[in-house]
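[job 0417] fold request received: Tumor suppressor 2, mitochondrial calcium regulator
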Amino acid sequence: MGASGSKARGLWPFASATGGGGPEAAGAEQSLVRSRARAVPPFVFTRRGSMFYDEDGDLAHEFYEETIITKNGQKRAKLRRVHKNLIPQGIVKLDPPRIHVDFPVILYEV
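[job 0417] inference complete; emitting structure tokens
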């Protein structure tokens, strides 16, 4: 969690053109901002899904199958986690949009 921020890639997309005290050096930050042609919105509209589809088309975080184990003549059911033949969910649209992790804002409620 948290590795999805833009700092991990080495750029700060929400920097001001005046160089206002970001984590990077002012000269490098200003050159980064000047090279951008468009402003970056502070919202995130999509995310990578954390769930998987199985062979039957069911969607879940984890899948288990029931296996029967015979021990000392007694049958016992045990759940085993399935790791194979799972398809990632892909990109999920967020409704409503979220504020980006690296957006420098303080949320205040009265």
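[job 0417] notes: Residues 83 and 97 are 32 Å apart (CA to CA). Strands lie at 43-48, 52-53, 59-60, 64-71, 74-81, 87-88, 91-99.
[job 0417] exit 0
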